[in-house]
Specification:
Helix content: 25-40%
Strand content: 5-15%
Number of strands: 7
Distance between the termini: 39 Å
Order of helices and strands: HEHEHEHEHEHEHHE
Shape: globular
Radius of gyration: 18 Å
Largest sheet: 7 strands, parallel
Strand order of the largest sheet: 3-2-1-4-5-6-7
Number of helices: 8
Length: about 260
């Protein structure tokens, strides 16, 4: 079979849900899926059709809609899939980009903050992947893309945070590393049903951080810069589309080469 690359990368008539699609990583991915032809539902505890972020995309003629969701509530996840199915079709693309980061005191934080992280980040990952994978299994397959991090692959370097109020929370590395292995588990289990499960591991996103942090961070990056929103778009479309139909259980770092040295 010889299929033109334009068709392989097209997401026309696809139905996508981007959990955490209002965030700095999820938003450009949601935008990219819509630009490639998918109908996209951005789901989060605050996502609504009339949000400025949603209306910005809608004004461009993109099919992007907001849905309220607590990703750690199984009944809400099931209701979301059911409502989208009734409105359009069963989602065949899921991007899991929703995350909370409650450990503001880092290693000095109370254990209740850790528990809160597990309740939303770990439990939410399990419930969304399981529920969406089963729905996709029963409707011809699909693609689940979990947004991990370079800090699910390598440990943070404490020296880049010296002299700033920035750090990486201990639960963050824990959940992102676990996400990678859980994604491989799900990929193995659902491959026979046409459901692919992969991870994207972004590096640090530029967000007007402390200049000393940026300088020290980019010294560790072979490409000598931080990530920008457009850097997230191509890999999301690739993993969502038929262009990656023989790829499952993979982890793709989008980090300028930080994890290769």
């Amino acid at each position: 079979m010889n299929v033109h690359i334009d068709k392989l990368l097209s997401l026309k008539d696809n139905c996508a849900v981007v959990i955490g699609g209002k965030g700095k990583i999820g938003y450009p991915m949601a935008e990219a899926l819509a630009e490639s032809g998918a109908r996209v539902y951005i789901a989060s505890p605050s996502a609504k059709d009339k949000d400025k972020s949603m209306m910005k995309l809608q004004k461009r003629g993109l099919k992007v809609f907001g849905r309220l969701l607590n990703q750690s509530n199984e009944s809400e996840i099931e209701s979301l899939i059911s409502s989208i199915k009734n409105e359009y079709k069963t989602p065949n693309i899921l991007i899991n980009s929703g995350v909370i980061r409650p450990m503001k005191k880092f290693l000095d934080d109370d254990s209740t903050a850790w528990e809160r992280s597990m309740e939303v980040n770990a439990k939410g990952l399990f419930l969304t992947c399981r529920t969406f994978a089963k729905a996709m299994k029963n409707h011809g397959g699909g693609s689940i893309i979990n947004i991990a991090s370079i800090y699910g692959i390598v440990a943070p370097d404490p020296s880049i945070y010296e002299g700033t109020d920035i750090d990486t929370e201990p639960d963050y590395s824990y959940t992102k590393g676990g996400m990678i292995m859980f994604s491989k588990y799900m990929a193995a289990y659902f491959a026979q049903y046409g459901v692919r499960v992969n991870c994207i591991a972004p590096g640090g996103m530029f967000d007007n951080q402390d200049e000393s942090f940026i300088e020290k961070y980019i010294q560790k990056v072979p490409m000598k810069r931080m990530a920008y929103p457009d850097d997230m778009k191509g890999v999301a479309v690739f993993l969502a589309s038929s262009a990656s139909k023989y790829i499952t259980g993979a982890v793709i770092p989008v980090d300028g080469g930080l994890t290769i040295i």
